[in-house]
Amino acid sequence: MSAGSQAYAALRICYFNGILPLWRSPLLIAAVFLTPFSFLFFLFVIAPHALFPYGVVGGILFTALFTGSGMLNDCAYLRLERQLQQVFVASPVSPLAYILGMALSELAFSLPAMTLFVIILFLVTPIGPLAGLGLVGLLLLTWLMATSLGFFISTLFSQLREIWPVGTLVFSILSILPPIFYPATEIPADWRWVAFLAPSTFAAQLADRLAGLGGAITTNVPLLNGPLFDVAGLVGFALLFGVAALYFARWRER
Amino acid sequence: MAVLEARGLSKTYRRGPAPVRALDRVDLDIDRGRLFAFLGRNGAGKTTFIKIAATLLLPTEGELHLFGHDVVREPSAARRLMALVPQEGKLFYHMTPREHVHEYLRVRGVSAETAKSRTDTILDEMGLLPYQNVIALRLSGGLQQRTLVAMVLATEAPFLFLDEPTLGMDPFARRQVWQVIRKATGRGSTVLLTTHYLDEAEQLSEELAVIEGGHILYRGTGEALKSTVGREVRVQFTGDVRPEELASFGKVFAERGRTVVLTTRTSVPELTEFAFARHLEITVGPVALEEAFLELVGRGIEEEE
Questions:
Q1: Which residues in B lie closer than 8 A to residue A22 (C-beta atoms)?
Q2: Which one of A106, B148, B167, B206 is at 20 to 30 Å from A194 when CA atoms are compared?
Q3: Is residue A254 one of the residues assigned to a domain?
Q4: For A56-68, what is each residue's pLDDT tens digit?
Q5: Does residue B249 register a pLDDT over 50?
Q6: Is the minimum CB–CB distance between A254 and chain B shorter than 8 Å?
């Protein structure tokens, strides 16, 4: 199969694994909305209203990161419970086309919630077209990073029961604990370095900058204070997880 | 010409407390266009062999070439030529049989026109047309399995791995699937099938191998395997009879409350008279592949012990 055919295969997988189930069970969209909207609701009720835009940005990022959790669960389910990944492995479909197709399906699941959060963000804080484009790029990078990580983890286990708690743990660490729904400066100064162990911190700082919100962590090293540091951090993590998904994931059992 | 060649193929699983040798230096050739059946008990090594051949699992030792491509070193080249029905595979719950077949063909790079025509044909051949637009969630287990087999057979791939393809199907559906499998080999595809239904292996395969404990115990035709039993007739008695009374006629064993004798044709009149005299119900038939399989696998286990 040519590169074009592989890309087409990925789109087809996105169609039948992402768009078709959404079309047939629209309730699935609500499942993606529920958690970030609950966080936003709590923030709205208990936090100063100045923090609300952070919550909206957090909602956007959470839905982008949620694609990783979905990827982990779906890939594990199709491989271990339904044995369907095997049907695609023993075929001309390349691992990259399969992973991309699955990742696009997860994007399809998250897009409605993501779009709604972006609309809310535009309503609560003015964003220029350039910043808007930057936000789209940031979300795509976050999606790539999260789904690569999700796929990689999904291949490491041979029992669904082992995967569910690991998935919950990893994506809670990735999408709830880091400064996504709140400014990074709220973290005590001595512990701020810990936040940078999570790739989502880089994504959140970038998103806050693009939305014109303050709150990024500043250090004595000027190089580490600008958006380039956040971009480098996020790209670095995306590359790391991408390589792991493509080269170290167990496409074939050992 | 052999399109599948395995040499010294071994697999040791090291997941549990002790390593398990699932395949032990297996050599096997399968010729193009053949329907080859793998028989064996659960855990004998059939699925492990298929998983290695279908590039799902790495062997511990040995080589396997599919159409000349080493499945370890050139998996992409081998994958272009294969399709697989996995053991206990299940469908996407939200998709219909038509969507499964059509989408799988499109993903594999089959053109829209060909995919549509092949989908129509296979759904008809597999008796799935009445259910073609019902989502998998609402299909019975047998219909789901039929859809999975249809998906894979519609690919017309040069090599088809079918790991227990008719599991859970009723006898009518099984026969429908057999016909489509025969058609696939008629078209030139090579089929490697595993099954626990020995009648299926007998009906379908031109050649078979019996595997036990990771070793191939037998390789040849079903007829030749049956001839290894040394008796042509199976006589079954229902009623009060002691095995010792029949021991002189051949091999005697109990099966589901009945007494079975594997014997020669010349003994049948005498055994019939015996049954009439004792008011026993008697059933006479040819020795089936099952007897030969049980004899062979049983002997293999005894030898190991």
A1: none
A2: A106
A3: no
A4: 999 999 999 999 9
A5: yes
A6: yes
Strand ranges across the sheet with B159-163: B82-85, B159-163, B190-194, B35-39, B207-212, B215-220
Contact yes or no for A112/A18 (Cβ under 8 A): no
Predicted confidence (pLDDT) per residue in A207-239, tens digit: 988 988 876 666 666 666 678 888 999 999 999
Residue A253 lies inside a defined structural domain of this protein: no
Exposed/middle/buried for residue A95 (C-beta within 10 Å: 0-12, 13-18, 19+): buried
Task: Quote the CA–CA distance of A23 and A20 in Å, as a whole number.
Answer: 5
Q: Compute the half-sphere exposure of residue A246: CA atoms within 13 Å on the CB side of its CA.
A: 12
Instruction: Give residue-wise pLDDT tens across range B97-149.
Output: 999 999 999 999 999 999 999 999 999 999 999 999 999 999 999 999 999 99
Contact call for residues B219 and B28 (beta carbons, < 8 A)? yes
**A254:B108 CB<8 A:** no
Count: domains in chain A? 1
Find the closest chain B residue to A12 by CA distance: B107
What's CA A194's distance to the chain center, in Å?
20
| Numbers of helices and strands, H then E, in chain A | 11, 0
Place of tokens 């940078």: A196
In a domain, A69, yes or no: yes
Kindly list the domain boundaries of chain B, sorted by start residue: 2-226, 230-286
Domain of A85?
3-248
CATH fold for domain B2-226: Rossmann fold (3.40.50)
Question: A105 vs chain B: nearest CA distance in angstroms?
Answer: 14
For the whole model, what pTM was predicted? Answer: 0.88
Q: Do the Cβ atoms of B276 and B224 come closer than 8 Å?
A: no
Query: Alpha-carbon distance B109 to B105, whole Å?
Result: 7
Residue in B15, B92, B108 closest to A84 by CB: B92
Helix orientation angle between A199-210 and A129-154, rounded to the nearest 10 degrees: 170
Residue A94 near chain B (CB below 8 Å): yes
Do the Cβ atoms of B32 and B190 come closer than 8 Å?
A: yes
Q: What is the pLDDT of residues B16-43, one digit of tens each?
A: 788 999 999 999 999 999 999 999 988 8
Highest mean pLDDT: which of A33-37, A64-68, A195-199, B238-242?
Answer: A64-68
What residues of chain A lie within 8 A of the CB of B149, using their CB? Answer: none
pLDDT tens-digit profile of A163-209?
A: 888 888 888 888 888 888 888 888 887 888 888 889 999 999 899 88
